[in-house]
Amino acid sequence: MLLAQITDTHLLYQGQDTPLALERADKLVRVVDTINQLPIPPAAIVHTGDMVNFAPKGAEEENSYELAFEILSQLKAPFYPTVGNRDSRPDLIAQFLAPDLLPANADFCQYRIKLKKADLISVDTKSATRIGTSCEPRLAQLKELLLQDTDKPVFVFLHHPPARVETIRNPLQFESIERANAVVDLLNGYDNIVRILCGHTHRSDMLDMGHHAASTSSSIATDVRLDRYPDQFNDEPVFQLHKLQGDHSVTSMSHFAISSRANAT
After folding, report:
1. b/e string for 130-158 if b means 16 or more Cβ within 10 A?
2. pTM, two decimal places
3. Which of the residues 61, 120, 194, 257 has the least number of beta carbons within 10 Å of its own beta carbon?
4. Which domains does the chain have, with CATH numbers?
């Protein structure tokens, strides 16, 4: 089973025809085209948050998600997002999630997707600030999602990594280590989790979360990307591919989306 991960697209609102707005939209278009042309199509594509950037309140913010939907609806495989610190829960849910995925008037964007070989669980770490958080209602709901099937392999995806990321300026991107550990401790109680996928850091890293392998991915918006690549790739968007092996191990690689060709590294 192949899973594609995109993150931190930071789209600006439709109609804001600045060079940066057009560039970020183009980067996502190129990623979508590249994923659609993969020789082995992914079973699903997940977006690990910050789909749009901060937008003016009102119609323009909603317009950001209309632009995102216009581009992402071209994906040939099923697409599932989670909420980032720059996202609007109501607009993200309205544009991308089927009504039966979340309880009516849900406070958080958390759900489980059942696929043939593995399931996906989206975790909401959005707080009132730019850093992540957890709380008892969210943890209780996440536990319910995990308990739906404790044998089937599951990918967990969330925006903020609930662990220290030593390669960035502020390694802990949670409100407190206690709140981060509450997420990690809960996830560590389930042996069927095969990978924890995160965004937010704008770079690719493997993380130490104890019992489970966890990783972050580069931002599609290359102007805020923190990875270093050879000069010829500095302006090329990159996404992650995660392959679930027969022994339930996961092999990951970065994949560039280039106008004339797609190279994997």
Report:
1. ebbbbeeebbebbeebbeeeeeebbbbbb
2. 0.94
3. 61
4. 2-256 (3.60.21.10)
